[in-house]
User: Fold this.
Amino acid sequence: MPFDPLKLHRFSARLFDRTLPIRFMPAAALAAALALTAAQPAAARGPENIADVAEQVIDAVVNISTSQKIDPRVTELPDLPPGSPMEEFFDQFFKNRRGGGGNEQTPRRINSLGSGFIIDASGLVVTNNHVIADADEINVILNDGTKLKATLVGKDNKSDLALLRVHADKPIKAVKFGDSGKLRLGEWVIAIGNPFSLGGSVTAGIVSARNRDINSGPYDNYIQTDAAINRGNSGGPLFNLNGEVVGINTAIISPSGGSIGIGFAVPSNSAVAVIDQLRQFGETRRGWLGVRIQQVTDDIAESLNITPPRGALVAGVDDKGPAKPAGIEPGDVVVSFDGHDIKEMHDLPRVVADTPVGKVVDVVVIRKGKQETHKVTVGRLQDTEKVTEASAKQEAPPGKSVVQKTLGLELSELSDDQRRKFKIKSAVNGVLVTGVDPSVAMADPDKRLAPGDVIVEVQYQAVASPADMQKRVDQLKGQGKKIAVLLVSNGSGDTRFVALNLQ
Assistant:
């Protein structure tokens, strides 16, 4: 649901109205109420050691200052008709912007600020990648104002983390990572930043949620907190009450740019593996399974007899990936990887990425209602390779042909003419979709079919013609099935699963 500032205002006003009458209480009642408040346990009022923790760790929190030299944008005159009375006006306007009548332009610098923290007294500093991205110069400013030039050790776009190195002439304070896996909802945490090199700023709040996916990347697994994270706090640490870093503050949801109590931090357990690789190799070396996956919806789970719905549905297998020789096939539902339960689709990329390259792991899949275990040697994900979700969007040129209609789909055999028209590779075989009735009932509306799609299988059985598909649909209806899972390919051979309502 989108954020509505007006709703928040009204809610706050109602709270204020309810607390207002305390002013008019009799003195004895007011004294009793205050005594009750004072008697509340410390946990109800908030932890008393926030100041102690902040004092202990604040010298390890630093300001990150970057600058980037850019060429000024060349601004062209608007496209005006020759002799237009506005031509002279715009010509004079842009000349003034350029600093006179000439075309010379002076390069300028863009500066940005963020936060970070020291994890090793030798001078290793962690921050967000977006804080230092494209910077020509990076400086780290300590809590006491000392300015140190930093060099980039390595960065990772997918997790938005970067590792810097500085050299100091005096001992510097470092902090340690804690176990973010032990965080509980409602647990107190402390966010510290150094956004404007004026010294550390401290805010406190609780863990609002864990494992948040905010659609910023394939490995989203954020801690959500209501501790205020404001401009310039990106890259700063999120501490538990033991003074351990349990997260790296990265993003907020806000219509105004300021904190509204919805902030997100990269969990320390996810960050440590990335930072260790950046420290050792200057780059990340993530595990790779070589599959494209999609969510196991309720309808797909019902058709595959998976109760309750769980796992990651394999929509396609890379011919050169580790999954292929291990025997993993499209239609398999991965429910466990290297001993880690896969509860939903987004769990699998995170677990695979954190697995050491070359490790042999057990992958448990459900295939046609039966559980199987496959041994897979984890490969290495290259930067050029894309993780993992099967896209259902397909655009194809329109076309009509004499076809058979089944469940609101216009179907045709794949002829050479059809392959050319819809740009379908020779390796793709099945039944061509040439039209879709707008009223056709798709069990999964986000995975709709479109002209140019090729139906390869219907409920794990290959089909080569519209007649094959009609026969298979009739067979499933006779078995009392309400949903059929179709394996669908686009013209390039990328497959996905679509749940089709048979009623």
In short: The first strand starts at residue 61 and ends at 70. Residues 292-345+356-380 form a domain with the Pdz3 Domain fold (CATH 2.30.42.10). The two ends are 32 Å apart (CA to CA).
